[in-house]
Amino acid sequence: MDIVEFDREPPATLTTLVMAFGGWIDAGRAATGALRHLARDLRAERLARINAEEFFVFTQERPKVRLRQDGGRDIHWPRSEFLSWEPRDRRDGLLLFRGPEPHQRWQTYTKAFLDVAERCGVKRIISLGALLAGAPHTRPVRVTARCSDPAARSLLEAWGIYRPPTYEGPTGISTIVLDAAERRGMQHVGFMGQAPHYLPDTENPAAIEILVTYVARLLNLSPDMSHFAEAIQEFRTQCDKAVARDRATREHVQQLEQEYDAATAEDQQPLPGGELDTGKLMQELEDFLRKQQREEGPSGPAGSA
Asked: pTM for this structure?
């Protein structure tokens, strides 16, 4: 059985890959949730899938059984899928990837993953992630970013979210993929959100929204964000009720709020929900996109949805 199975012949004009892995760096299911939102909004179609048998231990990532209307049952295996989106004006499109972090054979997995990316013409990768942190659910979700491209770095610095990598220790599959991609000459940008550590198993729409927002800014996309406000309000209401039941948790959240507010006053990080210099922001984004067009030739980056 092939490691990768294609649904159709892949186009060679998907110059940007957006990827999100579930598991360790998907706190609040923010990364995979953001990828899911983008794929649905763009109406991206599945292009290929990675065979789960080669890379997963099914007692850890179990297949799921679902009932059909006729009473029968279907087995759904862990899905690691590539999806494609090509704009109507025939400019370069997007390759999207979503899947759980594999359990084994990471080097083989990474090679197969990047072979698909190269076959589709990928020149840069945008990685989405989120970590559990000392962040209160009552405040805007913080995002940091890193990258390998000086032009993108200037843009991220203007947004106030660029942070040079300082972490040492155990790492996830996205780091392995990006390291190998850089050796293949692919540039990368990584967005990392922060989700409250006291809500480890809860899908966080606020974290999903902010990751979608930054990707959309970077790629000049205009996804529908209309449903997020209601989802975020409901999420925070439910969290407030849960926190209020326990005094120790309530006091802990209050401490996190104080620390967050103090850090915000010091850093002045411009968050998407806050006040931004829109004119400056758009000029920087246009400069960044023009630079990408010059480097890639007549085909430009992904256009507006």
From this structure: 0.82
**Tokens, residue 132:** 């559990």
- CA-to-CA distance for 18 and 28, rounded, in angstroms? 19
What per-residue confidence (pLDDT) applies to 302? Answer: 43
Q: What is the rounded average pLDDT for all residues in the chain?
A: 85
C-alpha 178/C-alpha 114 separation (Å) is: 9
Look up the CATH number of the domain holding residue 103.
3.40.50.10900
Query: Are the C-beta atoms of residues 108 and 88 closer than 8 Å to each other?
Result: no
Taking the mean position of all CA atoms in its chain, how far away is CA 147? 14
Domain count, the chain: 1
- pLDDT of 181 reads 95
* pLDDT value for 263: 83
Q: How many CA atoms lie within 13 A of 162 on its CB side?
A: 15
Domain that holds residue 216: 4-296
Cβ 155 vs Cβ 161: under 8 Å: no
- The predicted pLDDT at position 176 comes to 94
Question: Parallel, antiparallel, or unpaired for β 124-133 and 16-22?
Answer: parallel
Region of residue 105 (phi > 0: left; psi between -120 and 50: alpha; otherwise: beta): left
Spans in the chain with pLDDT lower than 50: 269-286, 288-289, 292, 298-305
Residue 237 three-state SS: helix
